[in-house]
Write a structure and sequence with these properties.
Number of strands: 13
Structural class: alpha/beta
Shape: globular
Distance between the termini: 30 Å
Strand content: 15-25%
Largest sheet: 7 strands, parallel
Radius of gyration: 18 Å
Length: 299
C-alpha cells in the first residue's frame, strides 16, 4: 500500500493487532495515544489527548496520514456507566474532533462502534435498524456515530460485537483474561443468555484496511457469519487452548450489583460487508480457530 495510517488508541488489543497487520501490508503506521505503550516494531508513537482539538489538528498536520482509525475508547461498560463525563469525552467528543480534523484534511476516517448501540431484544440487527442502547457505553457509541458522520460524511463506522484474539503488546481481551483465569485454575462463570457475533482480530484488521482503501462511507457490521452464546464460546476457546471445559460453569448472566445492564442478543448481520469486501468473513468456528492458532504459533 505504502500509505500512512494513524491509529488513535493503537496501543490496545485491537489497535495493536491492526497496526501489526498494516505494517505487514506495507503501510507506514503511527500510533496516537495519550500514553506510550510497549513498542510495536516499525510503528511510531505520537502522544496526543484526543479531547484537545488543537493537538489533534497539529498531529495530523505534521503526520499527514492518508487514513485514520479511531479505536480510542472507554470500552469498560461498568466503568463508563459510572464515569460518564470521561466516557463521553473519549467516545463522543474525541471522536468528533478527529472526524472534523480528517474532514478538513480529506483523510479517510474509520470510527469503531459496537453492537451495544442496540438493546438486544430483537432477533437480529442490520445496519439500518434504529439504535436503542441499554447502558451508557452504548449511548456514547450511538452518539459518537452520529457525531462522526455529521462531521465527516465520508467516514466509515464499523460496528463489532466481540473481537477474539490476544493483544500484541498491551490491552485487555476476552481471550487473555480467560487464559489467565484458566492458567490459575479458576472456575469461569459464562452466561448462556448473552449471544454475540464474534470476529477474530486478524480478519477484523484485514477488513478495516480494505474499507480504508475503498474509502467506504457509512455504517457496516463486521463479524462472523453466525452467532454464539458466551458459555459455548468460552468452552470452545478453553478446549482449543488445552484447558478442561469442566471449569466453565454455564448460567444466566443476571445483573450482579454494580454491573451495568447488558444487551442479550448481539446478533449483527454481516451481509452488507460480505457483498462489499473481498476479505472473507469466517464462520464462528473458523474465527475462534484462527484467533487461537495465531496465539499457539507465538508460543
Amino acid at each position: 500500500m505504502g500509505s500512512t495510517l494513524a491509529v488513535f488508541g493503537g496501543g490496545g488489543f485491537i489497535g495493536g493487532n491492526l497496526c501489526r497487520i498494516a505494517l505487514s501490508n506495507g503501510w507506514q503506521v503511527l500510533i496516537a495515544s495519550r500514553r506510550e505503550h510497549a513498542a510495536i516494531p516499525g510503528a511510531r508513537w505520537l502522544p496526543v489527548d484526543i479531547t484537545d482539538a488543537a493537538a489533534v489538528r497539529r498531529l495530523l498536520a505534521e503526520a499527514q496520514p492518508e487514513a485514520v482509525v479511531d479505536l480510542a475508547a472507554m470500552a469498560d461498560i461498568d466503568r463508563a456507566q459510572v464515569q460518564r463525563e470521561a466516557a463521553r469525552g473519549v467516545n463522543v467528543l474525541g471522536a468528533r474532533i478527529i472526524a472534523e480534523a480528517c474532514a478538513e484534511r480529506g483523510s479517510a476516517f474509520l470510527y469503531f462502534s459496537s453492537d451495544a448501540v442496540f438493546s438486544g431484544t430483537a432477533p437480529e440487527y442490520r445496519e439500518e435498524d434504529p439504535v436503542d442502547p441499554v447502558n451508557y457505553y452504548g449511548q456514547t457509541k450511538a452518539e459518537g456515530e452520529r457525531a462522526v458522520l455529521a462531521a465527516h460524511p465520508g467516514a466509515a463506522v464499523v460496528r463489532i460485537s466481540l473481537a477474539l484474539g490476544f493483544p500484541v503488546t498491551d490491552g485487555n481481551s476476552f481471550f487473555a483474561a480467560l487464559a489467565a483465569k484458566l492458567e490459575a485454575g479458576a472456575e469461569i462463570a459464562a452466561p448462556r443468555d448473552e449471544i454475540r457475533t464474534p470476529v477474530d482480530v486478524l480478519t477484523l484488521s484485514e477488513c478495516v484496511l480494505e474499507l480504508l482503501e475503498l474509502r467506504f462511507a457509512g455504517v457496516v457490521h463486521l463479524g462472523a457469519t453466525g452467532s454464539i452464546d458466551r458459555a459455548s464460546l468460552t468452552r470452545k476457546v478453553a478446549a482449543l487452548l488445552g484447558y478442561p471445559s469442566a471449569r466453565i460453569l454455564e448460567g444466566p448472566a443476571g445483573e450482579p450489583a454494580g454491573r451495568a445492564p447488558r444487551h442479550k442478543n448481539g446478533i449483527i448481520r454481516v451481509g452488507k460487508a460480505q457483498a462489499l469486501l473481498a476479505t472473507p468473513l469466517l464462520s464462528v468456528e473458523r474465527s475462534i480457530e484462527r484467533a487461537v492458532r495465531e496465539r499457539l504459533k507465538e508460543r
